[in-house]
Amino acid sequence: MSALLSVKELTAGYGGVPIIEAVNLDVAEHEISVIIGPNGAGKSTLLKTIFALTARSDGEVRFSGKDITGLRTAALVPLGIAMVPQSRNVFPTLTVEENLDVGTYAAPPPDKEAVRENVLTLFPDLRGKLDQAAGELSGGQRQMVAMGRALMSEPKLLLLDEPTAGLSPAYLEIIFDLLLDIRNRGVTILMVEQNAKQALRIADNGHVLVSGKNFISGTGEALLNDEAVRRSFLGGAAA
Ligand SMILES: Nc1ncnc2c1ncn2[C@@H]1O[C@H](COP(=O)(O)OP(=O)(O)OP(=O)(O)O)[C@@H](O)[C@H]1O
Ligand SMILES: [Mg+2]
After folding, report:
1. How many Cα atoms are found within 13 Å in the side-chain-facing hemisphere of 228?
2. 85, 223, 103: which is closest to 152 by C-alpha?
3. What is the domain range of residue 225?
4. What whole-number distance in Å separates Cα of residue 148 and Cα of residue 7?
5. How far is the CA of 192 from the centre of ligand 2 (A)?
6. Which of 27, 39, 181, 198 is deepest in the core (most CB within 10 A)?
7. Is 195 part of a structural domain of the chain?
8. Residue 56: is it exposed, middle or buried by C-beta count within 10 angstroms (0-12/13-18/19+)?
9. Which residue numbers delimit the ABC transporter domain (predicted)?
10. Dist CA 71 CA 63 (whole Å)
11. How far apart are the C-alpha atoms of 72 and 75, rounded to whole Å?
């Protein structure tokens, strides 16, 4: 199958210092792909570089067969890419409804009400909270607002940076179930996760990033069963 997203030899960093170096990865349409790796490995930097939020110094990004290298973030959203950042991913003083609306600015959908209705069927908890300030919500609910905002642009590819960070195990399961729902609606997902074992269980493919380089890629199952990956990145225990 041809890749929806193809990252080739991507190198990027801050102030001229490379953080990710010559990273290669492909994400096929309709799959869930997970990036795992230690703190500081460059996982967020990789996602941000794909979404043109970090300066790329070398390499190429292709989306739907088109070279999107060098395009600005505002140009990527109308093509069908959206991102949920790792932290500070809602506008706390805006209402939930206003937060969702922000997701339509870069690529206004023809029927905003219908798109919002679709998003609210995924996140019914938000329906009664549309007029509440997002900053007043629980961590899990805020994560749903952030995901909902990204989905308001009806993306083909959703980039998620640690969607379950700081959430209880119960909420983690809720978010992972939602990700499966979102994928089943036809959205391709590339996410970074610290809850590596659980994430690889729902993932089609995984990539282990170490010191800015792609250490190994494989199916979720292959990585869960890989001795070196288990020992170094999954706490050692059997999958
Ligand atoms: N805006 C920035 N300016 C300068 N250096 C940065 C910036 N953001 C990140 N870095 C550096 O880049 C390196 C990789 O950071 P990054 O956030 O990509 O790692 P990560 O794998 O997402 O880590 P974590 O698991 O903790 O989220 C770190 O050494 C970090 O200090
Ligand atoms: Mg990070």
Report:
1. 7
2. 103
3. 3-233
4. 26
5. 7
6. 27
7. yes
8. middle
9. 5-236
10. 11
11. 5
| Alpha helix stretches (DSSP H) within 103-164 | 112-122, 139-151
Domain count, the chain: 1
The response to whether residue 87 sits with its C-beta less than 6 Å from ligand 1 reads no
* CB half-sphere exposure, 235, CA atoms < 13 A: 8
In a domain, 239, yes or no: no
Task: Tell whether 238 is covered by a domain.
Answer: no
Kindly give the parts of the chain with pLDDT less than 50. none
Q: What is the pLDDT of residues 17-30, one digit of tens each?
A: 999 999 999 999 99
- CA pseudo-torsion sign 232, 234, 237, 238: negative
pLDDT tens figures, 50-77: 999 999 999 999 999 999 999 999 999 9
Can you read off the two tokens belonging to residue 18? 């490379």
List residues, by chain if needed, whose CB lies under 5 Å from ion ligand 2.
43-44, 86
Is 43's C-beta closer than 6 angstroms to any atom of ligand 1? yes
Checking DSSP bridges between strand 66-67 and strand 81-84, what pairing results, if any?
unpaired
Nearest to 25 by CA among 228, 161, 213: 213
pLDDT of residue 87: 87
Q: Any idea what the CATH number is for the domain that residue 202 is in? A: 3.40.50.300
- Per-residue pLDDT reduced to its tens digit, 150-162: 999 999 999 999 9
Say how far apart CA 95 and CA 136 lie, in whole Å: 9
Tell me what pLDDT residue 238 has.
57
Q: Are strands 81-84 and 157-161 parallel, antiparallel or unpaired?
A: parallel
Cross-sheet strand order for the sheet of 157-161: 81-84, 157-161, 188-192, 32-36, 205-210, 213-219
